[in-house]
């Protein structure tokens, strides 16, 4: 700490006078710093957004200046009127940061559970629109993958592996400012065709409004959420207003995005050589009339890089943000808004638009007993995309295929010899999403340390989505009219409310501290879905008007009500900051289960020993922090959908004597109950040299049983399956390591690093009668749930040039499923990230490398007029060749075709798809200005800029056949005054 004297010193005055100044870290102002007068109460002030403060004191007082992450400074006033203060970083105080654990907060040093955390400092540097994107590579045990680069697309998340056999029951619980946020898909398979999965609502959560994200992973952290905590809990806290002068903050950015990696495909010469060889191998001398690429119909000297043509465009990105915040000691406010647009890399004018507004109001009474917190966020998304992703077409289209446009600028159909891929761009996918999340927290301190609090939350989501297939996507010579045009509509709505009264009591008892929390939850969610289709229009101009369709059909129409009630509690005891015990329990009631099974009990115990506070280590010069913690508990899962235990009926849609009848859809199962997840963890946390080196290591084991699945029934029953509990057990085990280091720190230059890596293993421990069940060709005992069962590839026959495979049952033929017994494990072996943050004077650099060790399937090759990766030029051509790929065929060699099909579903296509990616990089410069009231920041942010991988078939993260993630770079300016 140092202080600069800008005015008179010397004579001490006993009378009160005003002191003002600025708090900085030596370079940048520090807002939110607490400045108090030593040994005097009720006189603290908070520095404003420009680091400035003012207070009234005596001339001989001493200021106590404190801020999380910095060393507390004692600054004598010594008669000065202006006192500028510089604070120095102190990594040890990071253990005093309070993290959000849901119903309570806890100091980092005192938590008994496993909680990972990122803050707005990590989030604001990323040019992303999805909350899951902000977490990629930054949290141990949290594996996130992006499944498409199309704007508005989704992400997949797994926290410590897959617990449920059902693929749709592994999502974590999302809590936004205390309000549960349903992450169930809002799309429809017939309208979300541009995405690999149906539309997710998570894009409605604007990263710009987020202050912090905490992920709860072990039983101690998640059991208080009971049945909803089996797959982890994601707590999202939005930004709040802060005390100080009214602050205006405006920023604007613009940028561009493009596909990260293309497949390396054959050129025209390589492709035609392959095709000629294929016909020679098939013994065909005269090329058939339909093989336009090689029979002279198409120009054999023409070459088009279809990846650059169809998905090689530039996505233009623009964003405007603004917020106003400030307030007094008792009332603070924040209003913010943003507007974001992004075009696509596809040809055509497609645009994703997103607007968000956020408001926060905090108030407390003068005596501090009554507090109110109100937060609300409203997001509107408009997404206009093509109905079909052109990625698969761009990788398979013959390189000498005709031009997209004719000489007149119209779509070129080349005399009916091909389907112009741009015609599909006239089929469109449009969606509009409106999402409101609001929350109010009221609290009152009845007596000292006894606080009554209640949380009131409300959500409302409305999603309208459409897909059109106009007749204009077909070759005009076919004579197809608007009578063949089709429209698909999706109208989904859901709203929910929640009330959670709570009573919290804390008391110091001698050397110990006792905390008791009691609460209850009352929640209801209403949802409706209406999926419709229409065909046969008099004109394509009327294609969005379902009433104009000749044929109309309701594909699905349902309304559901989900009711949830719970009672929960927590007892925490901390003895002398040495030994900590945390007990949590919850009794849940869910409308998704039948009588007798609607309620279940969940709970956990967590313990910690802060051995660095023991007398024999308390004054250690090298060990600054040491903690051993462990937890065990039971959480649950009710992600099965509504009414699954009941006899249910739906409309048959069949008109009989002007009456639409009902048909049964589900059988009653009174024994339908909860999935149960038992979690065990042990962890060690060590800090060295004043926490300049901080290491954590955790081992965990999660066992999920009583699986909720559909048990197949014989067709004679009239039903395909019965929803029931299966006595199968899934286990996830793993190791997680994190390392945080302060590499260098002084007035002008600071450098910190964060590293995390996770090793996880998922396996099916037990499954009674698996061999006789319908799952016998999907799972294996002792193997992960995400395996693929494939043929065993044994090599290429150098004499015939045909792929060979192992006959597992020795019946003399290769057939499925008996010979499909080789396991391919698609679970990552390990994953993590390495982040560095550097600052020098007014410059800051922040970058993160994400890495994943994994395997996935590669392109296997197909016969016909289809381009191939250029590695297929090295194929078998004559007897004795030892090439890795079999002889090419034009489709007339049945043996080669069969072998090609078997090869595509064999272990031969499993390949290393590990990667290291420069996930984010952010450079900023704080422009030095004479005015302390104005701050100007220039930023350059990048996403996915570099990828290092042995994978040859495009991007190693993307879903095959869909647009890879985009590499994005943006530049912006931020003004604060």
Structural commentary:
This protein is mostly beta strands and about 1000 residues long. It has six helices and 49 strands. A hairpin with an 8-residue loop joins strand 35 and strand 36. The longest helix is centred in the first third of the chain and has 14 residues, at about 270-280.
Unreliable segments of 5+ consecutive residues? 1-14
Structural class: mainly beta
Q: Indicate the percent of residues in helices.
A: under 10%
Task: State the separation between the terminal residues, measured CA to CA.
Answer: 27 Å
- Radius of gyration from the CA trace? 32 Å
Mean pLDDT: 92
Shape: globular
| Tally of alpha and pi helices | 6
Largest sheet: 22 strands, antiparallel, barrel
Name the beta content range: over 45%
By DSSP, the count of extended strands is 49
What key attributes describe this structure?
single chain, 977 residues, mainly beta, 22-stranded antiparallel barrel, five-stranded mixed sheet, 6 helices, 5% helix, disordered N terminus
Give me the secondary-structure topology.
Layout: E1 2-5, E2 16-24, E3 34-37, E4 45-46, E5 52-58, E6 62-66, E7 73-76, E8 83-86, E9 98-100, E10 105-107, E11 115-119, H1 120-123, E12 142-146, E13 155-159, E14 173-176, E15 179-181, E16 210-216, H2 219-222, E17 233-238, E18 244-259, H3 268-281, H4 306-311, E19 315-327, E20 331-343, E21 351-364, E22 370-386, H5 391-396, E23 428-447, E24 450-469, E25 486-509, E26 512-535, E27 551-575, E28 579-590, E29 599-609, E30 623-637, E31 648-656, E32 659-666, E33 675-688, E34 693-705, E35 707-712, E36 721-726, E37 729-745, E38 749-766, E39 787-790, E40 793-796, E41 803-805, E42 822-825, E43 830-840, E44 843-853, E45 855-857, H6 894-904, E46 910-912, E47 915-927, E48 935-948, E49 966-976
Parallel strand pairs: 2-8, 14-17
Antiparallel strand pairs: 1-8, 2-5, 3-4, 3-6, 6-7, 9-10, 11-16, 12-13, 14-15, 16-17, 18-19, 18-49, 19-20, 20-21, 21-22, 22-23, 23-24, 24-25, 25-26, 26-27, 27-28, 28-29, 29-30, 30-33, 31-32, 33-34, 34-37, 35-36, 37-38, 38-43, 39-42, 40-41, 43-44, 44-47, 45-46, 47-48, 48-49
